[in-house]
Amino acid sequence: MKNAPAYAVSSVDHALQIAVMLQVEGPLSLSECARRLGIARSTAHRLLAQLVYRDFARQSDDRLYHAGPVISLAAHGRSRTALLRSVALPHLHALVERCGESVNLVALAGDYVRFIGSVECSQPLHVGNREGMVFPAHLTSGGKLILADLPPDEVTALYAEERWEGRLDQRPSLPALRRELTGVRRAGFALNRDRTETGVTAVSRPIRAPGAPAEAAVAISMPSARFRSQDLQDYLTMLAVTARDIEQDFARALADVG
Protein backbone atom coordinates (compact mmCIF):
# COMPACT_ATOMS: atom_id res chain seq x y z
CA MET A 1 0.00 0.00 0.00
CA LYS A 2 1.31 3.44 -0.96
CA ASN A 3 1.27 6.26 1.57
CA ALA A 4 0.96 9.87 0.44
CA PRO A 5 4.15 11.91 0.95
CA ALA A 6 4.23 13.89 4.17
CA TYR A 7 4.89 17.08 2.23
CA ALA A 8 2.84 16.58 -0.94
CA VAL A 9 3.12 19.26 -3.63
CA SER A 10 -0.36 19.59 -5.07
CA SER A 11 0.68 21.29 -8.31
CA VAL A 12 3.18 18.51 -9.08
CA ASP A 13 0.60 15.86 -8.22
CA HIS A 14 -2.00 17.50 -10.46
CA ALA A 15 0.44 17.76 -13.36
CA LEU A 16 1.37 14.09 -13.00
CA GLN A 17 -2.30 13.09 -12.89
CA ILE A 18 -2.97 15.01 -16.11
CA ALA A 19 0.01 13.34 -17.81
CA VAL A 20 -1.28 9.90 -16.79
CA MET A 21 -4.82 10.70 -17.99
CA LEU A 22 -3.50 11.83 -21.37
CA GLN A 23 -1.34 8.73 -21.72
CA VAL A 24 -3.99 6.22 -20.61
CA GLU A 25 -7.30 7.78 -21.67
CA GLY A 26 -6.39 9.85 -24.72
CA PRO A 27 -7.22 13.47 -25.67
CA LEU A 28 -8.86 15.71 -23.08
CA SER A 29 -10.14 19.26 -23.07
CA LEU A 30 -9.05 21.98 -20.66
CA SER A 31 -12.50 21.92 -19.02
CA GLU A 32 -12.39 18.15 -18.56
CA CYS A 33 -8.96 18.30 -16.93
CA ALA A 34 -10.12 21.01 -14.53
CA ARG A 35 -13.33 19.12 -13.69
CA ARG A 36 -11.58 15.80 -13.10
CA LEU A 37 -9.03 17.33 -10.75
CA GLY A 38 -11.44 19.72 -9.07
CA ILE A 39 -9.31 22.77 -9.86
CA ALA A 40 -9.96 26.11 -11.56
CA ARG A 41 -9.69 26.31 -15.36
CA SER A 42 -6.92 28.90 -14.99
CA THR A 43 -4.91 26.49 -12.82
CA ALA A 44 -5.45 23.65 -15.27
CA HIS A 45 -4.37 25.91 -18.11
CA ARG A 46 -1.09 26.75 -16.35
CA LEU A 47 -0.39 23.08 -15.65
CA LEU A 48 -1.14 22.08 -19.23
CA ALA A 49 1.02 24.90 -20.59
CA GLN A 50 3.97 23.59 -18.54
CA LEU A 51 3.34 20.02 -19.70
CA VAL A 52 3.26 21.21 -23.32
CA TYR A 53 6.49 23.16 -22.81
CA ARG A 54 8.25 20.05 -21.46
CA ASP A 55 6.74 17.82 -24.22
CA PHE A 56 4.59 15.74 -21.86
CA ALA A 57 1.52 17.07 -23.71
CA ARG A 58 0.65 18.69 -27.02
CA GLN A 59 -2.38 20.69 -28.13
CA SER A 60 -4.05 19.96 -31.46
CA ASP A 61 -5.93 22.38 -33.71
CA ASP A 62 -9.24 21.38 -32.10
CA ARG A 63 -7.81 22.66 -28.77
CA LEU A 64 -7.76 19.19 -27.22
CA TYR A 65 -4.68 18.08 -25.31
CA HIS A 66 -2.90 14.84 -26.25
CA ALA A 67 -0.05 12.83 -24.77
CA GLY A 68 3.20 14.48 -25.82
CA PRO A 69 6.23 12.75 -27.28
CA VAL A 70 7.96 12.25 -23.92
CA ILE A 71 5.21 9.93 -22.68
CA SER A 72 3.87 8.62 -25.98
CA LEU A 73 7.18 7.32 -27.36
CA ALA A 74 7.75 3.64 -26.79
CA ALA A 75 10.46 2.81 -24.31
CA HIS A 76 13.43 1.54 -26.28
CA GLY A 77 16.87 0.49 -25.18
CA ARG A 78 16.65 2.26 -21.81
CA SER A 79 19.51 0.36 -20.20
CA ARG A 80 21.75 0.89 -23.23
CA THR A 81 20.86 4.58 -23.35
CA ALA A 82 21.56 4.93 -19.64
CA LEU A 83 24.94 3.26 -20.12
CA LEU A 84 25.79 5.59 -23.01
CA ARG A 85 24.82 8.62 -20.96
CA SER A 86 26.93 7.61 -17.95
CA VAL A 87 29.92 6.93 -20.20
CA ALA A 88 29.50 10.21 -22.11
CA LEU A 89 28.94 12.67 -19.25
CA PRO A 90 32.62 13.12 -18.24
CA HIS A 91 33.48 13.74 -21.89
CA LEU A 92 30.64 16.26 -22.23
CA HIS A 93 31.98 18.20 -19.24
CA ALA A 94 35.47 18.15 -20.77
CA LEU A 95 34.11 19.40 -24.09
CA VAL A 96 32.36 22.32 -22.35
CA GLU A 97 35.70 23.29 -20.81
CA ARG A 98 37.37 23.21 -24.24
CA CYS A 99 34.76 25.00 -26.33
CA GLY A 100 33.19 27.33 -23.75
CA GLU A 101 29.65 26.53 -24.94
CA SER A 102 26.84 24.24 -23.80
CA VAL A 103 26.95 20.63 -24.97
CA ASN A 104 24.21 18.04 -25.55
CA LEU A 105 23.94 14.32 -26.21
CA VAL A 106 20.89 13.14 -28.18
CA ALA A 107 19.48 9.74 -29.13
CA LEU A 108 16.77 8.79 -31.60
CA ALA A 109 13.28 7.94 -30.27
CA GLY A 110 10.91 7.31 -33.15
CA ASP A 111 10.91 10.39 -35.36
CA TYR A 112 12.10 12.54 -32.45
CA VAL A 113 15.44 12.94 -30.73
CA ARG A 114 15.59 12.92 -26.97
CA PHE A 115 18.22 14.94 -25.13
CA ILE A 116 19.74 12.29 -22.86
CA GLY A 117 22.62 14.42 -21.58
CA SER A 118 23.14 18.16 -21.27
CA VAL A 119 25.92 20.25 -19.73
CA GLU A 120 25.65 24.03 -19.58
CA CYS A 121 28.58 26.40 -19.96
CA SER A 122 29.24 29.24 -17.53
CA GLN A 123 28.86 32.16 -19.93
CA PRO A 124 26.10 34.60 -18.92
CA LEU A 125 24.38 34.21 -22.30
CA HIS A 126 24.19 30.52 -23.13
CA VAL A 127 21.92 27.69 -24.27
CA GLY A 128 20.22 26.18 -21.24
CA ASN A 129 19.84 22.59 -20.10
CA ARG A 130 17.77 20.52 -22.57
CA GLU A 131 17.96 17.16 -20.81
CA GLY A 132 14.76 15.15 -21.13
CA MET A 133 13.34 17.34 -23.88
CA VAL A 134 12.45 16.05 -27.35
CA PHE A 135 12.54 17.69 -30.78
CA PRO A 136 11.63 16.45 -34.27
CA ALA A 137 14.65 14.51 -35.50
CA HIS A 138 14.64 15.99 -39.00
CA LEU A 139 15.01 19.51 -37.62
CA THR A 140 17.97 18.97 -35.29
CA SER A 141 21.63 18.63 -36.20
CA GLY A 142 22.06 15.46 -34.15
CA GLY A 143 18.81 13.97 -35.40
CA LYS A 144 19.82 14.41 -39.02
CA LEU A 145 23.12 12.63 -38.38
CA ILE A 146 21.36 9.63 -36.86
CA LEU A 147 18.72 9.55 -39.61
CA ALA A 148 21.45 9.73 -42.25
CA ASP A 149 22.88 6.42 -40.96
CA LEU A 150 19.55 4.56 -41.13
CA PRO A 151 18.69 2.26 -44.05
CA PRO A 152 16.47 4.05 -46.62
CA ASP A 153 13.46 1.85 -45.86
CA GLU A 154 13.60 2.78 -42.17
CA VAL A 155 13.57 6.48 -43.03
CA THR A 156 10.61 5.87 -45.35
CA ALA A 157 8.75 4.07 -42.56
CA LEU A 158 9.46 6.83 -40.04
CA TYR A 159 8.00 9.48 -42.34
CA ALA A 160 5.07 7.50 -43.79
CA GLU A 161 1.85 9.53 -43.76
CA GLU A 162 0.02 7.13 -41.45
CA ARG A 163 2.58 7.74 -38.68
CA TRP A 164 1.97 11.47 -38.88
CA GLU A 165 -1.80 11.46 -38.49
CA GLY A 166 -2.86 14.63 -36.73
CA ARG A 167 0.40 16.41 -37.53
CA LEU A 168 0.71 16.14 -41.30
CA ASP A 169 1.48 19.85 -41.46
CA GLN A 170 4.74 19.09 -39.62
CA ARG A 171 5.74 16.13 -41.83
CA PRO A 172 8.77 16.92 -44.00
CA SER A 173 8.96 16.26 -47.72
CA LEU A 174 10.59 12.83 -47.96
CA PRO A 175 12.52 13.56 -51.20
CA ALA A 176 13.86 16.82 -49.74
CA LEU A 177 14.77 15.08 -46.49
CA ARG A 178 16.62 12.34 -48.37
CA ARG A 179 18.67 14.96 -50.23
CA GLU A 180 19.53 16.69 -46.99
CA LEU A 181 20.51 13.43 -45.30
CA THR A 182 22.74 12.54 -48.24
CA GLY A 183 24.62 15.82 -47.76
CA VAL A 184 24.92 15.24 -44.03
CA ARG A 185 26.23 11.71 -44.59
CA ARG A 186 28.90 12.95 -46.98
CA ALA A 187 29.96 15.81 -44.70
CA GLY A 188 30.09 13.70 -41.54
CA PHE A 189 28.60 16.49 -39.45
CA ALA A 190 25.44 18.61 -39.30
CA LEU A 191 24.88 22.29 -38.64
CA ASN A 192 21.57 23.68 -37.47
CA ARG A 193 21.09 27.44 -37.29
CA ASP A 194 17.80 28.81 -35.91
CA ARG A 195 15.84 25.82 -37.22
CA THR A 196 14.56 24.22 -34.03
CA GLU A 197 14.91 27.27 -31.79
CA THR A 198 15.27 30.87 -32.90
CA GLY A 199 18.62 32.28 -31.84
CA VAL A 200 20.28 28.90 -31.29
CA THR A 201 22.97 27.30 -33.46
CA ALA A 202 24.19 23.73 -33.00
CA VAL A 203 26.85 21.66 -34.71
CA SER A 204 26.99 17.88 -34.21
CA ARG A 205 29.04 14.75 -34.80
CA PRO A 206 27.67 11.17 -34.70
CA ILE A 207 28.45 8.53 -32.08
CA ARG A 208 28.60 4.91 -33.22
CA ALA A 209 29.07 1.62 -31.45
CA PRO A 210 31.59 -0.71 -33.14
CA GLY A 211 30.30 -1.81 -36.53
CA ALA A 212 26.93 -0.14 -36.02
CA PRO A 213 25.17 2.91 -37.45
CA ALA A 214 24.99 6.11 -35.42
CA GLU A 215 22.79 5.72 -32.36
CA ALA A 216 23.51 9.10 -30.81
CA ALA A 217 25.11 12.44 -31.56
CA VAL A 218 27.05 14.99 -29.56
CA ALA A 219 26.38 18.67 -30.21
CA ILE A 220 27.85 22.03 -29.28
CA SER A 221 25.02 24.54 -28.89
CA MET A 222 25.41 28.30 -28.68
CA PRO A 223 23.54 31.57 -29.20
CA SER A 224 23.48 32.23 -32.95
CA ALA A 225 24.86 35.71 -32.32
CA ARG A 226 28.08 34.14 -31.06
CA PHE A 227 28.54 31.62 -33.87
CA ARG A 228 31.23 32.49 -36.44
CA SER A 229 31.72 30.39 -39.56
CA GLN A 230 35.51 30.64 -39.19
CA ASP A 231 35.21 28.75 -35.88
CA LEU A 232 33.35 25.80 -37.42
CA GLN A 233 36.45 23.70 -38.07
CA ASP A 234 37.61 24.14 -34.48
CA TYR A 235 34.22 22.99 -33.20
CA LEU A 236 34.30 19.97 -35.54
CA THR A 237 37.78 18.99 -34.35
CA MET A 238 36.72 19.18 -30.70
CA LEU A 239 33.55 17.20 -31.45
CA ALA A 240 35.54 14.55 -33.32
CA VAL A 241 37.83 14.03 -30.33
CA THR A 242 34.87 13.86 -27.93
CA ALA A 243 32.93 11.44 -30.15
CA ARG A 244 35.99 9.20 -30.49
CA ASP A 245 36.55 9.12 -26.72
CA ILE A 246 32.87 8.38 -26.02
CA GLU A 247 32.85 5.60 -28.62
CA GLN A 248 35.94 3.97 -27.13
CA ASP A 249 34.61 4.08 -23.57
CA PHE A 250 31.16 2.94 -24.72
CA ALA A 251 32.67 -0.06 -26.53
CA ARG A 252 34.57 -1.04 -23.36
CA ALA A 253 31.43 -0.61 -21.24
CA LEU A 254 29.37 -2.75 -23.61
CA ALA A 255 32.04 -5.46 -23.51
CA ASP A 256 32.03 -5.37 -19.70
CA VAL A 257 28.25 -5.92 -19.48
CA GLY A 258 28.52 -8.77 -21.95
TrEMBL record:
Coiled coil location: none
Gene3D superfamilies in UniProt: 3.30.450.40, Winged helix-like DNA-binding domain superfamily/Winged helix DNA-binding domain
Lineage: Bacteria, Bacillati, Actinomycetota, Actinomycetes, Micrococcales
Keywords: DNA-binding, Transcription, Transcription regulation
Entry-linked Pfam families: HTH_IclR (PF09339), IclR_C (PF01614)
Gene Ontology MF, one: DNA-binding transcription factor activity
Sequence ranges assigned to domain IclR-ED in this UniProt record: 69-252
Domain spans labelled HTH iclR-type: 9-69
Cited InterPro entries: GAF-like_dom_sf, HTH_MetabolicPath_Reg, Tscrpt_reg_IclR_C, Tscrpt_reg_IclR_N, WH-like_DNA-bd_sf, WH_DNA-bd_sf
SMART domains according to UniProt: HTH_ICLR
UniProt key word Hydrolase: no
Keyword match Transcription regulation: yes
Protein name: IclR family transcriptional regulator
Example of a GO biological process term: negative regulation of DNA-templated transcription
